[in-house]
Amino acid sequence: MKLKFLIFVAILISGINLCYSQKYFTKTGKAYFMSHTDEIDIDGTSKSVVSFLDTKTGEMVFGVNIKTFEFTLATAVEHFNETYMESHIYPKASFKGKVKDFQKIDFSKPGKYDVVVEGDLTIHGVTKKVSEKGTLVIKDKKIIASSNFKVAIADYNIKVPKIVVNRVAQIIDVKIDAEYEPYTGN
Q1: Span 23-182: which CATH code?
Q2: Residue 115, CB half-sphere, CA atoms under 13 Å: how many?
Q3: pLDDT-based confidence at 185, cuts 50/70/90?
Q4: Which of these, 130, 119, 167, lies nearest to 152 by C-alpha position?
Q5: Which residues contact 65 (CB under 8 A, 6 or more apart)?
Q6: Mean pLDDT, to the nearest integer, of 1-27?
Q7: What pLDDT, on the 0 to 100 scale, is given for residue 186?
Q8: What would you measure as the largest C-alpha separation in the chain, in angstroms?
Q9: CB of 8 within 8 A of CB of 39?
């Protein structure tokens, strides 16, 4: 009887670990963007992107507080937060979607996988359906995700004052990097 109970407990514990190991998390993901024009390059980086990845369902969620972006050009902080992103009204940007064909990925084996992620990207209070290419690298019990894509600021109702219209790109280059670790619920 005790042996059956111990086997039951061992199976239960391994099942709990398996359940947790299907979800991965980071709160130190990076979001980088570049606005390139003939007059000036303006770039910003946040190292505080929060993200979950569920390897059982392929679901992927990202969130970033707009005020966490830091800039090479010091004067860009105020303009970015107050004029363009209006971070006092729209404090966060987010993505909620799914890795397409995630079933083809063997998350238990090290390797590099080209993926497509589809879902809803919300910036400046506007949500748009997106489909973007990226990569997932599985190694050392971690998953490293990265993607490069473009965002048209007009799609998200981001207005640029006429006086500086030549200094802000209409299409912004974005790069996302996230290093996930197994989520333990802590």
Answers
A1: 2.40.128.110
A2: 28
A3: confident
A4: 130
A5: 46, 48, 91, 92
A6: 52
A7: 61
A8: 81
A9: no
The predicted-structure confidence for 139-179, as pLDDT tens digits, reads as follows: 998 999 999 999 999 999 999 999 999 999 999 999 999 99
Side chain identity, residue 11: I
Burial string for 26-60 (b: 16+ CB within 10 Å, else e) reads beebbbbbebeeeeeebbbbbebbbbbbbbeebbb
**Angle at the Cα of 44 from the Cα atoms of 122 and 172, rounded to 5 degrees:** 55
- The answer to whether residues 115 and 149 touch, using CB atoms and an 8 Å cutoff, is no
Residue 169, CB-side half-sphere exposure with 13 Å CA sphere? 17
Structure token pair of residue 138: 């599985």
**Domain boundaries of the chain, sorted by first residue:** 23-182
